């Protein structure tokens, strides 16, 4: 039987900083690899790299591969269909719109969870929850420039894919919430890599194109390592800190990616995206506090 570590704000912050770095690396490597490879091809290679890493980690643990046995294959499949769809939309969106806008719209995933959870998990709506959803929706309108010249003039294909991605992530969150009742983190991540590789093959319709040069291969490798690293570091941060403490730290990846986008890709530092993202995140934070009250 494992025991939870003692709470530590310092360790939670350090793990969260590593998670922020991983998320940023995912966005940059996805955009760079996406110049050469298709989105489904990137997801296939990411899953293959992740499988190798997880398989090695399992082999080094005392229980080995015995801990990936599951009695809930259907729920794993639903989770990974949602996650694959979310990842596909996310990586496609980073090739179309500014990185900060993708990250801001990704924060809407908890909105979808709050809307769908009453139907799937039996949770109840509340006035506070609806207020948080309304505040987040106002933030979405601000992010896509709905209050500028021409209503929804900034709403295009990239924004659509980013919002669809957030819905896929919401399905993933709901399924994960159920799986954590019976499955270990390694088990969940193992089935993520096993199931999503063939999903990538199915979308590609054949054998994916290998990275044609060393630079692309390195970006794909960074994509695979950072993808697993983000999941692991985020989980570790929540082990050392309460959700109401750790979750606000996650917002810092929005201004961080905005600065990276400005420095690397000459993307403008759009204050409506930062302010809208802050409203979305604050609405989510209100729901987190309500859920834990």
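Q: What amino acid sequence fits the structure above?
A:
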């Amino acid at each position: 039987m494992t025991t939870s570590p003692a709470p530590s704000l310092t360790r939670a912050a350090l793990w969260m900083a590593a998670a922020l770095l991983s998320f940023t690396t995912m966005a940059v490597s996805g955009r760079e690899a996406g110049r050469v490879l298709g989105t489904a091809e990137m997801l296939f290679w990411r899953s293959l790299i992740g499988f190798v890493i997880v398989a090695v980690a399992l082999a080094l643990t005392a229980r080995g591969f015995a801990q990936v046995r599951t009695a809930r294959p259907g729920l794993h499949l639903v989770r990974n269909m949602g996650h694959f769809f979310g990842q596909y939309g996310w990586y496609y969106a980073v090739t179309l719109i500014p990185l900060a806008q993708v990250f801001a719209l990704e924060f809407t995933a908890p909105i979808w969870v709050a809307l769908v959870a009453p139907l799937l998990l039996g949770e109840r709506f509340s006035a506070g929850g609806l207020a948080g959803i309304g505040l987040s929706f106002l933030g979405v309108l601000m992010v896509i420039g709905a209050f500028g010249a021409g209503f929804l003039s900034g709403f295009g294909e990239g924004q659509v894919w980013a919002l669809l991605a957030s819905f896929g992530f919401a399905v993933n969150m709901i399924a994960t919430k159920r799986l954590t009742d019976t499955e270990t983190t390694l088990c969940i991540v193992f089935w993520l890599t096993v199931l999503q590789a063939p999903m990538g093959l199915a979308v590609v319709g054949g054998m994916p194109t290998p990275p044609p040069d060393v630079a692309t291969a390195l970006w794909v490798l960074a994509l695979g390592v950072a993808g697993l690293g983000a999941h692991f570091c985020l989980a570790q941060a929540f082990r050392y800190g309460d959700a109401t403490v750790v979750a606000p730290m996650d917002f810092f990846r929005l201004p961080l990616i905005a600065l990276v986008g400005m420095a690397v890709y000459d993307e403008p530092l759009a204050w409506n995206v930062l302010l809208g993202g802050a409203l979305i995140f604050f609405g989510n934070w209100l729901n987190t506090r309500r859920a834990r009250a």
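Q: And what stands out in the fold?
A: The chain has twelve helices and no strands.
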